[in-house]
Amino acid sequence: MTMYSVHPVAGLPEFRAGDDLPVILSDHLATGDPGLAPGDILVVTQKIVSKAEGRMFDLACVDVSDEARKLAGITLKEPALVELVLRESSAVVRAVPNVLITRHRLGHVMANAGIDASNLGKGGENRVLLLPEDPDSSARRIAEPCQDRTGVLPGVVISDSFGRPWRIGTTNVAIGTAGPPAVIDERGKPDRDGRIMQVTQIAFADSVAAAAGLAMGEGPEGLPACVVRGLEWQPGYQTSSDLLRPPGEDLFR
């Protein structure tokens, strides 16, 4: 039986644009608990990645298009926010009062294109945070300095909290990966009774993100990174896009 543990990376600073997040993380892991061991997966919240990469925007400085103003009237949302949502999205999936669901340019279907205004630090009024430009590349940039400083190349998962269709509440999912499999495909293998599995695909990276999310929290906890230790996995070449169901397989439209 596989047993795993989740270890918060404590003592991290409030990140700002231009901070060298990979170096700061690797220094903490090289000099204190929990360190890194072979097979560890470092889970990092999207929020600190976006902050360090300068993805913060002041709504007062956003030029609002006519399309955004019209959509803001429908959704009852701030026009500048709607403008940023449209810039980050490839399609609007649902727009009704107080709800704006889009397909993000990265392929995720999510509320407000993942744009968030919570836990932005002092001076965050009227500012919002967008997702990283390329979370998979961000994950790779975090992994390499960790190997240089500790001698261990960890898996890296960048997590974000998502709502889910037909379910109440949010859970953490992987929006960026480097190393661990995104999906483990069990189709064609026998179950314990010898029956051949037809549809089983394990969202491994999402499961790791959800496990770490229970330790990191969603509110005032201030724990933006965790090490998940004890899982068995083989490195591969998948990215977070392997977790996305193609639009042609949309079962609800």
UniProtKB/TrEMBL annotation:
Signal peptide region: none
Residue ranges occupied by any Coenzyme F420:L-glutamate ligase-like domain in the UniProt entry: 12-230
Pfam families in UniProt: F420_ligase (PF01996)
SUPFAM superfamilies the record matches: CofE-like (SSF144010)
Keyword terms: GTP-binding, Ligase, Magnesium, Manganese, Metal-binding, Nucleotide-binding, Potassium
Domain of life: Bacteria
Keyword Magnesium: yes
Class of enzymatic activity (EC top level): ligase
GO terms, molecular function: coenzyme F420-0:L-glutamate ligase activity
Annotated EC: 6.3.2.31
Protein name: Coenzyme F420-0:L-glutamate ligase
Species of the source: Croceicoccus esteveae
Lineage, opening ranks: Bacteria, Pseudomonadati, Pseudomonadota, Alphaproteobacteria, Sphingomonadales
